[in-house]
Amino acid sequence: MKSLLSRTLSLVLLGAAVTARAQEEPADASPARARANFAHTIVLAPDDVRMFPEGPDGFRTPHKGALQGRLELFEYDSGVTGRRRKANVYLPPGYPTGRKYPVLYLLHGIGGNHDEWRGYVHADAIIDNLIVDGRAVPMVVVMPNGRALPDDRIPSGNIYTPENSAGFAKFERDLLDFLIPAIDAKYSTLADREHRALAGLSMGGGQTFNFGLGHLDTFAWLGAFSAAPNTKPPAELVPDPALARAKLRLLYISCGNKDGLISFSQGVHRYLKEHDVPHVWNVDDHGHDGDSWAGNLYHFSQQIFR
Ligand code: FER
What pLDDT, in 10s, does the model give residues 256-271? Predict the structure, then answer.
């Protein structure tokens, strides 16, 4: 029987490991990393280049010392998991003042939950600053738990299991049939595809490709950052390039040039290029980490809903 102290210590260490996960270099030889195979050889093509600069100094901390909008915890009932589920919701300054707002859904990575975008990347501060400065359209941001399992907590051991990955695939119906309707019922939203964006990091980037490109009637704006191996093969993602061309308002794809998972994003980019589907392809100088996700959220969120 573990003492309370050692149990608390293991929880703290586990928390640190999950946070540190994304900051490690691909060469890291931890057992979880080895199983996850982050150490693919990176081969860069001439067009795998940076499109946008780094975010300016302080772009991840609230300019006015505190958020001008606000965050709240949202709960909804899911017929997929049979449980009540949580999401963080960011509401812009002045919400609602008789207006309806577009909605961005932000999906986390394999070792995260509904707190990862807020706590690790500071998505709320990044978007709040941009709205306050008039550089992003005022929007509601929903940060759900993308692991649609009855127990949707971050697994306490190996996160690279088939069960954990399956939860991320099951989130498709949870998002479409339960979360989006619940958000549109509670908040003052513009509930059509033109005013709905989906973006995510890593497993959430793969979910964005899979669910977003698979449901162009639901989402017009997509952002896939450092997409993970859950990304479907490109020809399955975009079987009808003409339809994608007609429907997408923005398809923003990014990855770090030090990220061992870059081949998944490169594959989608190359297929889209061959089939003349317009998209943004931003290859920055980061690894599989929060600096890449913060910077790309900064650029993506300025381009949506316009
Ligand atoms: C894998 C490597 C990485 C994998 C998933 C990931 C499902 C996800 C990483 C993340 O979300 O940060 O082999 O397989």
Answer: 999 999 999 999 999 9
Is the distance from the beta carbon of residue 228 to the nearest atom of ligand 1 less than 6 Å?
yes
Rounded to whole angstroms, how far apart are CA atoms 120 and 12? 16
Q: Is 23 in the pocket of ligand 1 (CB under 6 A)?
A: no
- CATH classification code of 4-303: 3.40.50.1820
Instruction: Please tell me if the CB atom of residue 230 comes closer than 6 angstroms to any atom of ligand 1.
Output: yes
Domain boundaries, the chain: 4-303
Question: Letter for the amino acid at 195?
Answer: H
Q: Could you give the CA distance from residue 223 to residue 250 in angstroms, rounded to a whole number?
A: 8
Strands 84-91 and 140-144: antiparallel
Ligand 1 centre from 36 Cα, in Å? 6
pLDDT for 23-55, tens place per residue?
333 344 455 544 556 788 999 999 999 999 999
Q: Do 120 and 60 form a contact (C-beta atoms < 8 A)? A: no
Which atom of ligand 1 approaches the CA of 38 most closely? 2
Global confidence as pTM? 0.90
Which two tokens mark 270?
A: 């190359």
Answer whether 227 contacts ligand 1 (Cβ < 6 A). Answer: no
